[in-house]
Protein 1
Amino acid sequence: MDYQTQYQEYKALADAALNTYFADTTVSYHRLLEAMHYSLTAGGKRLRPVLVLAFCAACGGDVRAALPVACAVEMVHTYSLIHDDLPCMDNDEYRRGKLTTWKAYGYDMAVLAGDALMIYAFETASKAFSMGADPAKVGRAIGILAEKTGIYGMIGGQTVDVELTGKAVPREKLDFIYRLKTGALLEASMMIGAILGGASEKEQKRVEEIASAVGLAFQIQDDILDVTSTSEELGKPVLSDEKNQKTTYVTLVGLDQAKADVAEISARAVSLLKELPGENLFLENLVTMLVERKK
């Protein structure tokens, strides 16, 4: 199966599963569910659930048993985007070419939708216990999702990012922010997939190294796109980092060096992938796509 066909197959599995969690529209607070569903279906590529499923399959696991946790990762990611766009954070009005949740549903409902998605993610992940997956592996996967999302992961990175907005940020501190704010959830996706797929401790460590490199390259590419792309291509405002007076990889090392570093880091990630058992051409193509994307 070629790369695009395989990617779309994983994406379709994730989309179908996500829709099942929003089938009840009869509740009195249906507007909250609408806001949550609106945010989840706003045109995302489903990179994180695809990573969960792909690494699970690469390690010999059953991707259908991993679907609840894959969906949970996407819910956490979507919650983070909703809150990122709020006026108290990045104050963005468009994402993926559509109005952001707070512009479409109001500030109050956007906060609630983000909060609800965070909690619903863990409720959803727990459904994997009844779908044939090893309970110990599911428990470990949920623990990783919590760790990589919380104060030692994505939220911790976002906190440091907010505190340093408008201030000079040294390279080591920027790497720290990137590793937590963006890299942590990508790491979680790959590690969760590997664990649910039955990876050994050694293989899990290798996947964590791969994920760390991919997360850094992904965020640097995001910085590059913020200054080289257009709002039409990205589906969201460009030059937002400049508007918010944020230090980025590009402002620190320059555009050319940033591009060179993305190439070097992604090549390192692909090299580490080759150390995993079996043929992993889809994963190699997926990693390359992540860091060479144009939007």
Note: The two ends are 25 Å apart (CA to CA).
Protein 2
Amino acid sequence: MVPQCYLNYFVNENRRINVFDIIQLCEYYSSPKDLAVRRDYYRDYLKNDEFIWEEHYSAIAESILPKTFDYIINKSVHAKSGEKILTDVIKNNMALIIITQLFRTEKWRYHSYKTFSPEIPLILNGFKEKLQLLEKRCGKGYFSEKGIEAFARNQYLEFANSEFILYTHRQILLDRTWIIFKSIKNKKRIFSSDNPVLLYNIDLDSFDLADNYINDLNNTLFFPLSTGILLMILPNNNTQLIDFCDYADCVLDGSEKLFNFHNRGQMMQASRQVFT
């Protein structure tokens, strides 16, 4: 659910990541290849060629992630506080990475799918052919738990990765205020998780999924790029955040209070693993 090329930015000097399991309430170290992984999670059995969405994600987002992250991190470390470092090209790349990551995690994809209520048009699209594939792969009892799961996965993945969804959601982000915060002076470690794109509803003071969606004008988005660099994307119409507009596309020294707030949100929205 989270690519290794992203997790590589959260390793320690021994190439290990400190993990907190919010289900088992335990802490341990692991390597990027063993984290946030589920076998055949992106394999779609309701396409004739058994399409593997992981290959799609790798092609459109993971291929641009290292150079985009490296640019932002290197610029942030060496820039003075208040210096503008984000370009249109970098923001376009980051918007695609963020939206792809948001929808590739099951928690957000299901939440988004319910919010848009697209069941009727998506189910009717190729419905007969998909039923035939279900019967072929699952036998006569294709409305079994396995068959329904395969059908649901097909619908979620097709919806989340449609050109319309990718374009409109990227544009929502690009129309907002982007700021990079770095943890240099206080050396506060920035958390990430197996659900790393974090949304917070300012008006409701809530990290709860039910109160958050990316097109809500009250949402602030957090996306950690490393243990020392945090991207925030802020709504432009909120009076509480008006002062930040002067620092659009800039890097700032983040406060310990800000990073603690973000880290708490990662704990709340993670599916299971928080990378500390």
Note: Confidence is low (pLDDT under 50) at residues 117-124.
Protein 3
Amino acid sequence: MAQEPIKAVTIVGGGTAGWISAALLSRTLGPSVAITVVESDEIGIVGVGEATIPAIRLLNGLLGLDENDFLAATHGTIKLGIEFVDWHTVGQSYLHAFGPIGRPLGMAPFHHYWLRRRQAGHNESLWDYSLNARAAKAGRFDRITQVGGGYLEGLVYAFHFDAALYAQYLRRYSEAQGVTRVEGRIVGVDQDAESGFVTGLTLQDGRKVGGEFFIDCSGFRGLLIEETLKSGYEDWRAWLPMDSAIAVPCASVTPLTPYTRATAHGAGWQWRIPLQHRTGNGHVFCSDHIDAAQATDVLMANLDGAPLAEPRQLRFTTGRRKQFWNRNVVALGLASGFMEPLESTSIHLVQSALSRLLALFPDRGFNPVEIAEYNRQTALEYEYIRDFLVLHYKATTREDTPFWRAVRRMDMPDSLKARIALFSQSGRLFSQDDDLFKEASWIQVLIGQGVIPQAFHPLTGVVTDAQLDEYLANLRQIMGRAVEGLPRHGDFIAKACASRTAGR
């Protein structure tokens, strides 16, 4: 049977998700597919996605964006990882740093050699062997791909940026690629009477916008995927009970730190995202244990600088759509589901969904087998990220508030139980292909939150104590010298990509 190619893609909603979609689709599909974005200036964006993970560099690279220009336009800074404060116990902190830990040695993963040394009474920190962690804590950064003459990988980094400015940046890019923007509020959705497929949109002023394939970036509302197609929602509050956030920007302070910070409070946690022109802050909390007024007080009492706006509240339900792709509609961004921004995954989930969508891009027949495969892969990705987030709450010794006592005792998914049990007993850890967070990430959070394995890999025994001592000392020395040679993060930003409104 002859295939009929898609000729028109309509994106409902702009914001970060909508304009990433428009930019990437226009770049990859070319002029043969007409792309239209329908958005209303009356509808603001949530804008909590100011921190990212390294995969965003692949997106920006595919789009051909100049990194310094992008950072200057979005008031961006560099991110080497996330510091977690007071999660394991009050007064303790650790980094989830990007990049590898140590360097492979023999047949056993590096952390097993660190565990062997630890059991022998040595007290080096695991993060002594992370170049990213050492640079982050020293407040230094440069674009280096290798250190020690190629002996070690260089810094692995992502970005902090103003999400609204990033959306504007990608809008300009997309319109230059031929994307059409339609301004207007959607008041009606047309469907085919027989198939239920979406056939068009009706705007407040009576205009009609058609399309063959629709991407729903309408935020929590889910205008097409839920209000129209009733795709269903899987509620994960039993594992991730946070349901609210208070957000407010404050004045920047120095030094300009190259990492995000997540500080645990009595009934939630606070994000801190340093940009060139301000610092983004938010208090994510569970309303069963604290009300919005109290949460606001906690946030305002823990700002680094003077507030620059009135605090605003967001409400959400952690979980995901039961169908991400239903008929001729795919949901992206907040329309597809929500997991709190603890590990900066919101923008990545848009990016990975688009990659998956392009691999399974339909014709006008919309093969249900391909749709089912997209939904299967996307559900797996959400579940793997869910487990990683739940780990932060379960692996704690905090008993100081009812909230921490509750999350410490709550049930957890069987998949997470199995992973923690394997690691705690043997130090072994395995990631699946669809798992965003690989071994180095899991190891840092597990050990950072006090899950120390009872054993280490027996194959570490092929290396003598003297050989291991020399090997580890060499690693520490190479990393230390590399970090000492890096410029200050603030100096790097000022020289390479200073904000275009830095003097404002």
Note: The radius of gyration is 24 Å.
Protein 4
Amino acid sequence: MSVFIIAEAGVNHNGDVELAKELVDVAYNCGADAIKFQTFKAYESTGVFAKKAEYQKQNMPKEESQFDMIKKLELPFDEFREIKEYCDRKGIIFISTPDGIESLNFLVRLGVPLIKIGSTEVTNLEFLKTVGNTGKPIILSTGMSTLGEVEKALEVIYSTGNRKVKIMHCTTDYPTNIEDVNIRAMITMRAAFHVPTGFSDHTLGFESAIAAVALGAEFIEKHITLDRNMEGPDHKASMPPDEFKEYIIHIRNTEKLLGSGIKKPTEREKIIMKDVRRSIVAASDLKEGTIIKRDMLEFKRPGTGIKPELVDILVGRKLKRDLNKDEIILWKDI
């Protein structure tokens, strides 16, 4: 099964629907399976007295509240409808993360194929229950969470009868330091909860995605941007188009490297083995009628004759023709 790649546009449209469409183009042209946005009304998620998170202060040093910053990044619901229609025409899946009930209800009406729940909502149990009640498939992001908190979140969603849940491991830091990624936590959650798991990558490089795919991630999410130098909280931790295209190539190549898991020779190995494996050959010149003894046989290349593992079958048999030293013995010769 191919890894499902989600291009996380998030709020990197900077509140401009045309920039959002350009991000759709980037995701599609780079080969992503889906593009994800964040659908919200600032008042649904953030109080007017909330201060910026530490990474937001670093990426946007301007003095303003978190509410004021988020307010500037809103897109009207009608524009999300426009973006989804654009995605449908392009042939890429539209996904979005709701930050409140109003946004959730809108996305359900819009007909999104699944609901992505952000890491900030893992302990927001009432909201999780509401999302579960939609009956929609869910991807639950688990940044900042303990295993116990994830377990409780799943229990709440399952209590609605909705068990169509996948878990995404991530670290809520933009960008994330390599030593903080802890991809093995994805394996821990898969073993603990027996659900499909994936990875939301907030690092700047390619290594984390390669490791996650090698460890069994079924889906990968990565922030994209048109330009890292644009103003906004997430641009610096996002990938511009050229890097994102290479990122997807690395993921697809990792899938090829992992293969099917069936141990068997490749088609090219089947050709090569004829030249490099060994066959049973005459250890010296042998005459027709000779009764073969073990010391008359050696194992040498090429591998087009009788396999060495069958040497005991030859011992005691009579030769039907003369053989030169190093000549391959064939079944028709005995």
Note: The chain has a mean pLDDT of 94.
